[in-house]
Specification:
With about 90 residues, this protein is an alpha+beta fold. It has helices at about 15-30, 55-65, 65-75, and strands at about 1-10, 35-45, 50-55, 85-90. A hairpin with a 4-residue loop joins strand 2 (about 35-45) and strand 3 (about 50-55). It is globular. This is ABM domain-containing protein.
Length: about 90
């Protein structure tokens, strides 16, 4: 499994709106993105992380170029962000 981790700096006052964006696009991600296996939202005191599971690194990278990510998800989250997101891809051991 390959994981795409996106860490978002979002103020506490905007967290509910960020959760709404996550919920709005989760099904579309799982149903339409090639190789998508899972998607989880991790809310911590200091930030919010979205952990996406994929079958390959190539599919994880392709998602970052997709319209769902670049237009819909980023468009919905952009006004809520306090900083540039940290995007990392990991291979499970």
């Amino acid at each position: 499994m390959v994981y795409l981790q996106i860490t978002l700096k979002i103020a506490a006052a905007n967290r509910a709106a960020a959760v709404g964006v996550y919920k709005k696009y989760k099904a579309a991600f799982l149903n339409t993105i090639a190789g998508a296996k899972s998607k989880e939202l991790l809310v911590r005191e200091q930030d919010v992380q979205v952990l996406h599971g994929f079958d390959t690194e190539e599919n994880a990278k392709a998602y970052l170029e997709s319209a769902l990510f670049s237009a819909d998800v980023v468009g919905g989250l952009k006004p809520l962000l306090d900083d540039v997101p940290d995007v990392r891809i990991y291979q499970a051991a």
